[in-house]
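#structure-requests
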Amino acid sequence: MFKKCTACKAEKELSGFWRNRTTKDGHHGQCIECAKEYKKRPEVRRRKRKADQKWYREGGREVVKAYQQGPEYKKTKRRTSVKYRNNYPERLLAQNALIYAVRSRRIDRPDQCSRCGVGCVPHGHHGSYGEESWLDVDWLCGPCHGEHHRKDQDDLVLSSIVRKDYMAAQREKNHRASAALDKITVPRPGEPRCQTIARRRRS
């Protein structure tokens, strides 16, 4: 059985169309090739991203959390991890080398993003995965790191709502950490431990 594509006007077999239960024949109006090209358009990707962010803010967060706690998510995560290790062994080597260097204090991880300056625990972005560049990284926060990896220049502008929410959460986290540090009573030189504890209780 053949069907005419609404985009390229070519007649193709039904196997050349994605399934869609909402249509009479059970298939999408555009053929697979035209549908893929349509989804690659920058304006379409921006519109979809805004819709996804709105859904996430209006209740999708709980749906995602419930899914991530289920067995299906764990099974999918294991499968994708194995696929990533097989497809990108050089990336895995670079990431493991950086993790080991940070843990062994060979290099220090900063406490803010090198691009936007927001206080966070930044990601180490590798410009190259060669062995000589394993420890040569740019320290970027999550949103900036995601921006850097987007292929289209039109998609490099992250939603201001996501950025503001992220920065507000980081500021609140830093404020709580500073308040906790202020409550710590530092022992004075030569002061007995019992007096330090007493001053801590008074404060």
